[in-house]
């Protein structure tokens, strides 16, 4: 990495995501002049290129960067597959932290401050799926299998958990927990899916034994879903397989005030990229209403990754002060400010 002037490519994405990116860059380009911010065209403009040219272009942008700040895509903007699977960003980190001014639906959200680590490459997202009758025809069932009626007109999707992938994300989670509260919680559907979910938890337990100062606990995932609402303050680092992590992190974001407040980062061994967790928000496209908080907080994580933690702290503190003041909040947080007015308030605070 070029420590003097790191290159961050900014991929705006689709629908309302470019509006959050544009507003965030008003702040980021002023705050971090030591970063080489390289903004590419939104997905609608890239659509004029052939599929192959789009893919080649985005790949070259990503591979020529120290990191990427990504909006979100509905499929028009390419690059996610390359950043995620080709660059092997195996750990999706989603901080869940309530800040004063966040409009949480909970009566006492004050002590919510934990991190969800979602395994990012395996589980139900491997894309192995097809006609379910093939499972029977090729002898891929067992005595435990309960094949439903109508197998001749059915579909299946495979859930794949590897030891290598689980060990990797388990070590990442243990290391993260040791930097925080020295507590790791793991959750999956171990009672119903022993071949995959119990296997996942077993491997994590084995890795955790190498961290004698680490407190380890484990819950079935449906129990974990209720704990995110009933006792979130008891969590520090929560490790989940891919699908559960995708779903429960959205639930967790709701407990602090919504997806507009939820940042994330996807980390590999030699590359990481950062994006809000809220998706493209097509219902807000063109309205200057999308909340850029998640994008800005993702930039806080980006700064930490680049070794610019002081900038991240300044940005995080400025966001805190805007929420505490309460005058320039977007509509999802009970305010009337536009996307750019919120970003301007953060910039003015800085």
- CATH architecture group name of the largest domain: 3-Layer(aba) Sandwich
Q: What is the CATH fold-level name of the largest domain?
A: Isopropylmalate Dehydrogenase
Task: Flag low-confidence runs.
Answer: none
The SSE order reads EHEHHEHEEEHEHEHEHEHEEHHH
N-to-C CA distance: 27 Å
What amount of the residues lies in strands?
A: 15-25%
What strand line-up does the widest sheet have?
A: 2-1-3-12-11-4-5-10-8-9
Mean pLDDT: 95
- The count of strands amounts to 12
Structural class: alpha/beta
- Under CATH, the homologous superfamily of the largest domain reads Isopropylmalate Dehydrogenase
Total of helices: 12
Percent helix, as a range, is 40-55%
Using brief descriptors, characterize the structure shown.
single chain, 350 residues, alpha/beta, 3 domains, ten-stranded mixed β-sheet, two-stranded antiparallel sheet, 17% strand
